[in-house]
Structure formats: structure tokens, C-alpha cells
Design a protein that fits this description.
Length: about 170
């Protein structure tokens, strides 16, 4: 029987729930065929912990970011954290985005957080991990996320690339 290699593109291995058995979880994942793991952060502490775990494992990668649900409490940490995105062990930026399902963080704060992440990802040429969730019966988060992407230089880059391909 052939064992299929596995990639986990979003594993919060640095979460507290793994503190008691993190090494056992890693061993089971490797035994099951896991070959790559992306460890995204949701705030400064979790992002830095993800970088440490990725460095220790060697076969894992990290992503640094401030989740929209904590964007209001992490504004001061965000810029310093995003400078860590240039680290070779960091292969993506995020997790960031818009979340209107959870109350508490103003949409303008989430948008500023998203815009900062988007700028860093574009500057470094790294993938952006997007979180997007609207309250039930609403599409506010999706609309705001699309507006942010349209307003970014990403859209201009894609349009320029598309025009070159058509000509």
C-alpha cells in the first residue's frame, strides 16, 4: 500500500492545547505521512512561537500575522511583527482578513490590519493567508475583503500581467 505524503497548510501547532503533548502530536503526524506543515500565527506571541517550532522541526514553515478578531488589541505589535515576515522560515503572511461574525473589533481597525498585511505580502512576494467570515445572513466581510484587494497594488499588478498576456 502506498502512503500518500501529506501537507497541512494551516496547523496551529503552537496553540496552548498542544502544550501537554506537542511532541506526541508531531510524532503521530509524521507517522501518518505529514511532510510539510505551515504554522500560521494569530497574534505576535503565536507568530513568534510558530517561527520557533518551524526552525526546530526543519520541515515546517511559519506565517506571521494578526487575526482580525484581535486586531484592536494588537495594533501596536503589528508593525514590529510584520518585519519578521522577511525571515526565511516565514513563507506566508497572515492569518489576517475581515471577520464580522465576532463582535468587538471595528471594521475600520480590521481593514487597517488587513491593508498592512497585504502591503507586506506584496512587498516580499509572499502568499497571504486570508480569513473571511461574515455574520449569518450577511456578506459584509466578503465585500470588505474584495474592496481591500481591489484597492491594493495587487489588482494593478494582475491587470498589468493580464494585459501583457492578451497582447
Amino acid at each position: 500500500m502506498v502512503q500518500l505524503p501529506l501537507v497541512d497548510a494551516h496547523g496551529h501547532l503552537q496553540a496552548e492545547r498542544f502544550d501537554a503533548d506537542r511532541e506526541a502530536v508531531i510524532d503521530r503526524a509524521l507517522a501518518a505521512g505529514l511532510k510539510r506543515l505551515l504554522i500560521p500565527g494569530w497574534d505576535a506571541r503565536s507568530s513568534l512561537a510558530g517561527i520557533e517550532i518551524a526552525a526546530r522541526l526543519g520541515w515546517a514553515h511559519a506565517a506571521v500575522g494578526i487575526h482580525p478578531s484581535v486586531a484592536d488589541t494588537a495594533e501596536g505589535e503589528r508593525d514590529a511583527l510584520l518585519t519578521r515576515a522577511a525571515d526565511a522560515r516565514v513563507t506566508a503572511v497572515g492569518e489576517t482578513g475581515i471577520d464580522t461574525k465576532r463582535d468587538g473589533v471595528p471594521l475600520a481597525t480590521q481593514r487597517a490590519n488587513l491593508d498592512a498585511h497585504l502591503a507586506v505580502a506584496l512587498a516580499l512576494g509572499k502568499p497571504l493567508i486570508l480569513h473571511c467570515r461574515s455574520a449569518a445572513g450577511s456578506d459584509v466581510a466578503q465585500r470588505e475583503l474584495l474592496a481591500a484587494l481591489r484597492a491594493s497594488s495587487l489588482t494593478r499588478q494582475l491587470l498589468a500581467f493580464t494585459r501583457k498576456q492578451v497582447v
